[in-house]
Design a protein that fits this description.
GO terms for molecular function: ATP hydrolysis activity. It comes from Aureliella helgolandensis. The chain folds into three domains: about 170 residues, P-loop containing nucleotide triphosphate hydrolases (Rossmann fold); about 130 residues, no CATH class; about 300 residues, Nucleotidyltransferase, domain 5. The protein starts with about 25 loop residues before the first helix and ends in a 38-residue tail after the last helix. The protein has 18 helices and 30 strands. By secondary structure, it is an alpha/beta fold. The protein has a nine-stranded mixed beta sheet. Strands 3-4-2-5-6-1-15 form a seven-stranded mixed beta sheet. The longest helix has 21 residues.
């Protein structure tokens, strides 16, 4: 090192001064220095803050602050945000990708409707492989259980499908998403080693209760939840014959009864089958929404259907049909290219029943006042399939011979799985066309319970059930030319108080109420006279001994002689016909004997002695009678005379006056059972009665109709006075209880009318 060079100084490390045990003075000094600095900077002098850890109040406050910080939770995300940020497609063409609305744009309308909070029930239907299982079944299930963390009732068609629905539809979605994967059950039902039965508990403590449509009624009770989801909804349309409760969907809805209607959420998802089944059956009592898209040519907002897919029908081969198939605008008829269709669907809007949309996309009109949303997407809105694919399907179906079972099957497949419309079986010439609206509108200016002045026969039909007793009164009129007209002055139901007493006693109480109504009489229009029914028929196919015992008890009031008991007006009735419920066919006996005491000349009913009940019952042809009833309902109620006046059509049926909706239930009942013709292939056509819902009033109507023929038959024996010669009722007749040889005075009885 040179002599002039200075040795560099060794840098010393800062000394660490250990804190003294009692450093309060230094802390105070430091605090005063900070206070002086703050004062020089213009701030207020802070007070020293001393935490005393030995103070229980301070400790409690600290622990409470820590708990509050740890317990802070974000509010639930919207359904759209949750889907796009959390859900990952587990399989298919977009496997491993996050869910995006623009792949199937119209589902955004469904998602936004859920987030809007305007509705409490959401009914979803779309073509097969549209994505409805993910967006309308799995999505709502996982959103409510994983995001909102609340219990969920899940309805599946059959109990043995519960495991399949979990393993195939729900579990793969949870496994594909990192956020949902951690909530999978670690043990028990639904876990890797657990068998799915009727309940799945996620790791966040939320329970999913699985309930089957085919389970017994007790299997649907005992669980409460705010949210309900149903998949494959058609199976929930009606209860089985072993169930005496409401349909399965209503039974599941009962699990939500502890919540107000505005708090509940219900999701119904399924493929369209027929009009009478879910989800299509809910269409008329919902928003009945339609998806409208702008036409790229005329700019009208349109909803193309199956008839708007053209070009394929003139092709000579399958590939040619695909090349030539295209969608067209139902307004202007112009061809809509595939790219134009996609652009149009991106602008889709949801328009409810009663609303209109103009060319600018502005929606006007008030939507239905309902909290049930009905959402339906058609083949035009399904961007997963091009017009080429659908055109090939249509062409292949058209090559199958018409009126063959294979053709019916192909048409059903296209309706349900491609175009999402109910399948309607082809109509044959012998099938009746029943219009519910026309049936309910055949009203006359006669109030309820008032008979037409020219009533000739008055009969009652009564159908009996465990909870309800249904009745219908039929007035048959005959004019001077012998033409027959029919009028229904009353019908309805009476509650059977089976929940308060034994069933047999409850039925007798309800039957007595109907019988008492009849014996009080019905006022004839324009007079003060009261008319009692000539015949009262009570159905005996349910609780037979109870009904026959009631008929025997009330028939003793008539005190008819033994020879005339076969003409008693109050009888039990057995309907027999070719239906699927009873499988009992009607056969008319050839002659009377010890059991058969009277036979209809036309062979449509006969009277039989029921020895164990010591009374008379009628066995009648229900199939033929229902056919005659429905034929009369197809006739126009009124025609126009040459002078311009409205007159009732001979043979037609009219109803009592009221509002336009007063007879909706009657119209529904009389059309719920129909004689349908089906092609069975090599066996040819087969006709059978098919029931689509409650038909109690149809049974009552048919009974009253056939009872009229019995009243005419008894009058034809000329055993009694001419019609209306004596209107004395049984309660007023002093000679009624004097059986035996006739005196000089003609003996009066119940049939002192023709």
């Amino acid at each position: 090192m040179p002599p002039t060079a200075k040795r560099p100084r060794k840098q010393s490390r800062p000394k660490v001064i250990p804190k003294a045990p009692n450093s309060g003075a230094k802390q105070a000094k430091s605090g005063s220095q900070k206070a002086g600095l703050a004062k020089r900077q213009g701030g207020d002098t802070p007070r020293p803050h001393i935490h005393r850890l030995d103070d229980p109040i301070v400790s409690l406050r600290m622990e409470l602050s820590r708990a509050l910080r740890a317990g802070q939770a974000r509010p639930p995300r919207s359904y759209r945000e949750w889907l796009e940020r959390c859900l990952i497609i587990p399989d298919g063409k977009y496997r491993g990708l996050r869910f995006r609305v623009d792949r199937q744009p119209v589902v955004g309308l469904w998602i936004d409707a859920i987030d809007s909070g305007q509705y409490t029930e959401f009914d979803f239907t779309a073509p097969s492989q549209f994505g409805k299982t993910l967006i309308a079944f799995v999505g709502p299930l996982l959103y409510h259980t994983c995001e909102i963390a609340e219990n969920y009732v899940l309805g599946v068609p059959f109990a043995d499908m519960a495991a399949d629905k979990w393993d195939v539809d729900v579990k793969p979605v949870m496994q594909a998403s990192p956020e949902l994967r951690r909530l999978l059950p670690s043990s028990g039902s639904g876990s890797a080693g657990g068998k799915v039965r009727d309940r799945i508990t996620l790791r966040n403590g939320v329970e999913i209760k699985l309930m089957a449509a085919g389970a017994d009624d007790a299997g649907k009770a005992g669980f409460t939840a705010r949210v309900l989801g149903v998949t494959e909804a058609a199976r929930f349309s009606s209860s089985g014959t072993s169930s005496e409760e409401a349909d399965p969907l209503r039974q599941l809805r009962a699990r939500q009864r502890s919540y107000e209607d505005s708090e509940r959420r219900t999701y119904v998802e399924g493929t369209v089958s027929v009009e009478e089944e879910l989800p299509w059956a809910l269409k008329r009592i919902s928003t009945d929404s339609r998806i409208c898209t702008p036409c790229p040519h005329c700019e009208y907002w349109i909803t193309p259907e199956r008839d708007d897919l053209l070009g394929w029908d003139g092709a000579q081969s399958e590939n040619e049909a695909g090349d030539q198939a295209y969608w067209c605008c139902p307004v202007c008829g112009e061809k809509i290219e595939e790219e134009q269709r996609k652009s149009s669907v991106l602008e889709a809007q949801l328009v409810h029943r009663g609303q209109e949309i103009d060319t600018q996309g502005r929606i006007t009109g008030e939507p239905p006042d309902t909290s049930r949303l009905f959402f339906r997407a058609s083949a035009f809105h399904n961007l997963f399939l091009s017009a080429e694919s659908i055109g090939k399907d249509e062409w292949r179906a058209s090559q199958i011979p018409e009126d063959s079972p294979e053709r019916f099957s192909a048409d059903r497949e296209l309706c349900q799985f491609v175009h999402c419309v109910p399948y309607v079986a082809p109509m044959y010439a012998e099938d009746l066309v029943l219009d519910k609206k026309a049936i309910g509108s055949r009203r006359v200016e006669l109030p309820h319970l008032i008979l037409p002045a020219d009533t000739r026969w008055l009969t009652l039909g009564c159908d009996i059930g465990e909870r309800k007793l249904w009745y219908l009164l039929l007035a048959t009129r005959v004019d001077a030319d012998g033409k027959i007209y029919r009028h229904i002055p009353a019908y309805g139901d009476i509650d059977v108080p089976s929940e308060r007493m034994k069933l047999d006693r409850a039925l007798i109480e309800a039957l007595s109420e109907v019988h008492g109504l009849c014996q009080a009489g019905f006022v004839v229009d324009g007079t003060s006279d009261r008319r009692q029914p000539d015949q009262e028929w009570f159905d005996c196919n349910f609780e037979t001994d109870t009904v026959l015992g009631f008929v025997r008890a009330i028939s003793t009031e008539l005190a008819l002689p033994s020879a005339k008991k076969k003409y008693q007006p109050w009888v039990g009735a057995y309907g027999r016909g070719a239906d699927k419920l009873t499988n009992a066919r009607y056969t008319v006996p050839r002659k009377t004997g010890n059991e058969v005491c009277d036979i209809d000349p036309a062979g449509l009913w006969y009277a039989n002695r029921i020895r164990r009940a010591k009374t008379i019952a009628t066995i009648w042809d229900s199939s033929t009678t229902k056919w005659q009833v429905q034929q009369a309902l197809t006739l126009r109620a009124f025609g126009v005379e040459p002078g311009g006046a409205d007159v009732q059509t001979p043979g037609s049926v009219t109803l009592y006056s009221g509002t336009s909706k007063i007879h909706e239930r009657f119209a529904q009942h009389v059309t719920n059972e129909r004689l349908e013709t089906k092609d069975t292939g090599f066996r040819g056509k087969k006709r059978a009665w098919v029931r689509h819902g409650a038909n109690h009033l149809l049974d009552c109507f048919a009974m009253a109709w056939r009872a009229t023929e019995r009243a005419k038959h008894i009058a034809s024996k000329q055993l009694y006075l001419p019609p209306f010669a004596d209107q004395t009722t049984p309660a007023e007749s002093n000679d009624l209880e004097k059986p035996g040889p006739s005196s000089a005075k003609t003996q009066k009885s119940w049939y002192d009318r023709e």
